[in-house]
Amino acid sequence: MPAIESLKVKIFADGADFESMKQLAGNPLIKGFTTNPSLVKKAGVTDYVAFAKEALAAIPHRPISFEVFADELDEMEEQALEIATWGDNVNVKIPVTNSKGVSTAPLLGRLAAQGVELNVTAIFTLAQVEEVAEVLSAETPAIVSVFAGRIADTGLDPVPVMAEAVRILAPKPKAELLWASPREIYNIFHADSVGCHIITVSHDVLAKLDLIGKDLSGYSLETVQAFYKDATAAGYRIPTRRADAAE
Question: Where in the sequence is the domain holding 201, given as residue range(s)?
Fold first, then answer.
């Protein structure tokens, strides 16, 4: 297995806990950050704009994605143009459809043409990748976020899907494919193997980075020791003939 530092795929941290974001910003492996309204809500944030600007002030030199939360396309556009003013390192997240299933492709095209750096999110199908690729500007950087982890949750192998997405986006050299919602550290190696540009990883999964390359025999022993320690601490007892005879 190659060392994590040798991989071409960029690792972004996915989450909205401000203290964790600041801590992860000190890790040279973390090349950027993604958030979404659900993660911001989970983090207990009550003022979305204040949180975003505080994060940008603390992490000024790495890309951070902030999402619109309007549902009508005209209001999405207004929010996107506002978010784009918050910093040079901002990617404006726009879902591939609104909550009614209406495609945002026309809006994506308008924003990309104006130089807004997008992160198109909640993509699950190759047809959606094709639709997005058609409207992105060749001159404006963009991120195309395909939810590979959630695709895997449905029983489908996301690896060939992501490989084909890389091919679809090739004519737009400033568009980067992002592997979203990974479930395990090994997904970083999956993403790298098919040519994904970015993988965004939740803070709890990132905590497992130190396990890469760990000796498996030693890991086995540590696991057994943990089982034994917990059973002993809990005072568990299974009556046996030998134990009963000793009493």
Answer: 4-211
H or E stretch at 127: helix 126-135
CB distance 84 to 116 below 8 Å: yes
- Tokens for 11, please give them: 């690792």
- Closest Cα to residue 4, out of 215, 184, 211? 211
The set of residues, in sequence order, having a beta carbon less than 8 Å from that of 110 and lying 6+ positions away, is: 77
Q: What is the pTM of this model?
A: 0.93
Q: Which of 8, 31, 41, 93 is catalytic?
A: 93
What is the rounded distance in angstroms from the CA atom of residue 216 to the CA atom of residue 45? Answer: 40
Q: How far apart are the C-alpha atoms of 2 and 137, rounded to whole Å?
A: 34
The two most distant CA atoms of the chain are separated, in Å, by 83
CA distance 183 to 208: 11
Per-residue model confidence as pLDDT tens digits over 226-243? 999 999 999 999 998 776
Q: What is the CATH number of the domain that holds 136?
A: 3.20.20.70
CA dist list (Å): 89 to 26, 150, 151: 17, 27, 29
Q: Evaluate whether residue 164 is within a structural domain.
A: yes
Number of domain units in the chain: 1
Helix (H, G, I), strand (E, B) or coil at 2: coil
93 assigned to active site = yes
Using an 8 Å Cβ cutoff, are 13 and 201 in contact?
Answer: yes
